[in-house]
Amino acid sequence: MKKSFVEREYTVRTNKVDAPLLFAFLTDLHRSEFGEDNRDLVEAVIRLRPDAVLIGGDMLVVSDAYKELKSGAKGGGWYRNAVRLTRALSGSFPVYFAPGNHESQIITPRDEESELVFAEAGKELAGALSEAGAELLVDSHGSFSPQGGGKAEIYGFDIDGDYYRKFRYARFGEDYVREHLGSPDGRVFTIVLSHHPRYSDAVASWGADLILSGHLHGGVMRLPGVGGVLSPDPEFFPRYSDGLYRLKGREGKDCTLIVSCGLGGHTVPFRINNPPELSVIRVIPEN
Known about the structure:
By secondary structure, this protein is α/β, with parallel strands linked by helices.
């Protein structure tokens, strides 16, 4: 059966842009494909004609990389799908790519075994994504200013691996975010690609205007009026599982969190009432 996805549109109003911005947000592809070489997905993004494409991580599967590298195989088969998609999109639009927990384990390994297996893989992946046309944001940011106006700063937040460990439900505050990202310019519309939505309150307090997350795959199964049922952590009925949320940000100002249901899955091989999602995000002047 041919895989399909839905387009979900979100609108964010702000007094920090003077012209509308349109973003396509992709996350949690893992190894999924929609048409040969993700042709259906690429064509859908091209039809949208966004100002930029934002990629929120987990576009590959770390266990694929582990198996291939341990076997001594060469050729980068474990990242080929993600790189091909990036290249197909970057020919038409700026592409900003932030790591999810799967990329982070490879790019910034945090234990001895990972450091040994992924010793050169992180550099290889970063190089392949850059060569494919993406701006890779690992605890860094890029300025985005299309010809029509509406400047934005786009940050990629690389959360430490400990905060992704299963059955670990720790929290952190805005100081932790500042250690990773520095301080934002409060005059400029600030987007943070922060893979796990659990930590969005800290990112909002830090000064984000818009947070884009995934990781939960929509909660695997979604119930009307309830939302996602299960997160990968695992956690039943996670607070932020899918859709748009309003948070209180820096100095009491509003911050918008958008949690995409993502395009693929990992570990749990099914989705119920939860189609794969291509997120369409419109940022428009408040007045």
